[in-house]
Amino acid sequence: MAVASSSASPQEKYDVFLSFRGADTRYYAALCQKHINAFMDDEELERGEQISPSLLNAIEQSNISLIIFSQGYASSRWCLEELEKILECMDRYGQIVMPVFYNIDTSDVRNQYGIFGDAFAKHEERFKGRQDVLQRWRSALRKATNLSGFDSNVIR
């Protein structure tokens, strides 16, 4: 699939990159059943570890990024960092990005209300003095919710 981009895209290795929180792999399994080459990070990252360069490369080397916003998504620093990279690839390479709101209200994600607000309150404690990081994550969430996506309460 050819996509217009503002600069040269890295060699595409994956059809889809899945960004999600938790052990639920039904999305990955469904894509594989349809013979879609999907990347799913199945590494367990320890507290304090950085997202690996191989994971960031996998995002860059994907044609589409599918973001599964669920109740635990915002509690994961790594998910939020993935989200930033995904949106960077959308802007830089024209990567297709599709958000899925899984049992979560879009406005809670956009405005960090409810469980997303609770997660950000914990991030504020953890990242005291790093308001720039929190602001980037908030901005990324707002930008992602403005993209056309799917709501599990409306469509399965």
Textual characterization of the structure:
The protein is an alpha/beta fold and 156 residues long. It has six helices and five strands. It has helices at 26-33, 53-60, 77-93, 106-111, 114-126, 131-145, and strands at 14-19, 38-40, 62-69, 96-101, 150-151. Strand 3 (62-69), helix 3 and strand 4 (96-101) form a beta-alpha-beta unit. Helix 3 (77-93) crosses helix 6. The longest helix is centred in the middle third of the chain and has 17 residues, at 77-93. The protein is globular.
Order of helices and strands: EHEHEHEHHHE
Strand content is: 15-25%
Spell out the CATH superfamily.
Toll/interleukin-1 receptor homology (TIR) domain
Q: Give, in spatial order, the strands making up the sheet with the most strands.
A: 2-1-3-4-5
Shape, principal axes of CA atoms: globular
* Total of helices: 6
What structural class do you assign from the helix and strand content?
alpha/beta
| Biggest pleated-sheet summary | 5 strands, parallel
Regions with pLDDT < 50 over 5+ consecutive residues? 1-5
Span between termini: 25 Å
Please give the domain count.
1
Topology-level CATH name: Rossmann fold
CATH class: Alpha Beta
Number of strands: 5
Rg estimate, integer Å = 15 Å
| Share in helix | 40-55%
Q: Tell me, rounded to a whole number, the average pLDDT.
A: 84
The CATH architecture assignment turns out to be 3-Layer(aba) Sandwich
